[in-house]
Design brief:
By secondary structure, the protein is α/β, with parallel strands linked by helices. Helix content is 21%, strand content 26%. It is built from nine helices and 13 strands.
């Protein structure tokens, strides 16, 4: 069910967050502006897996849910150890590999019944390999890396955080879903605020999961850059909305995770660092 407008409880941080978020901003997942992202390594071994399902993830079909059946690849499933990791794809007639962040959560430590599939949130850009992936049908076979790549979000670095700010834009919400639905929220027992920015509600994925995420303790602040006239929630860009709301008192008690547009990650990072947040407490998945 699509959001029609943002309930008032989504517009503001909880009272104790206003107290906490003051002189030292919460962090982003972007690297320092001078640090170049390290591209994932191409795999040396490949596996073949069938598509389990493909369906639109947003009302305008700009994003798709894609699920792969990996029940025959126990080692590949077991290699998924952290939210934010990627799986390489080698698609027919594509001149380059694509690396997609895994949207489903990694198995909980000690789990005896790990999931048999990986979920992805795929941007359907015409003429690209990702669009071809969205055009596949259940049962079609794809070549993927025999293990996942990337370090994911190193949440151990913010294990002591009392408050966590999470920032996502567009399809960057995919690895954030993996994080929110992993053991991180339950283990962390912290206040978690998720700023999620898209153009409009027709481009906002995972709305059907919002109630469950909030039940787990995640406060969601949807931010629309081009909403319709009925929208009563936050307008503009994530970095601007956050700059208005931030009120960090003790930066050493805050952690931040960020994934999305480069401009957003860089601007939020600059604000957070200027307010006293250590770069070590700003997490990215690359």
């Amino acid at each position: 069910m699509l959001l029609r407008s943002a309930p008032r409880r989504l517009h503001l941080l909880r009272p104790h967050h206003h107290r906490l978020l003051s002189a030292a901003v919460l962090a982003s997942a972007a690297p320092a502006p001078t640090a170049a992202p390290v591209p994932p390594q191409a795999p040396t071994e490949w596996a073949e897996a069938p598509v389990a399902s493909v369906r639109p993830a947003t009302a305008d079909a700009s994003l798709y849910h894609v699920s792969l059946d990996l029940s025959a690849h126990g080692g590949l499933l077991a290699s998924h150890a952290a939210a934010g990791q990627f799986l390489p794809f080698r698609l027919p007639s594509a001149s380059y590999l694509i690396f997609l962040a895994i949207a489903s959560p990694p198995p909980a430590p000690g789990s005896s019944s790990p999931a048999a599939a990986f979920d992805f949130l795929v941007k359907r850009l015409p003429g690209t390999p990702s669009a071809r992936l969205c055009d596949l049908r259940p049962g079609d076979l794809v070549h993927v890396g025999a293990s996942v790549v990337g370090r994911g979000f190193d949440v151990a670095r913010i294990a002591d955080a009392r408050d966590v700010l999470v920032f996502a834009t567009g399809s960057g919400i995919s690895p954030i879903r993996s994080l929110v639905e992993s053991s991180f929220v339950e283990d962390h027992k912290a206040g978690i605020n998720l700023f999620y920015g898209v153009r409009n509600l027709q481009r906002m994925a995972y709305q059907e999961r919002f109630n469950d995420w909030e039940t787990k303790g995640v406060k969601i602040i949807p931010v629309l850059s081009r909403p319709d006239s009925q929208w009563t929630g936050e307008r503009g860009y994530v970095q601007n909305v956050f700059s208005r709301m931030k009120n960090i008192v003790n930066p050493s008690s805050v952690g931040a995770i960020l994934c999305g547009h480069k401009q957003m990650t860089e601007e939020i990072t600059r604000v957070l660092v200027a307010d006293g947040l250590s770069k070590d407490r700003i997490l990215t998945n690359f």
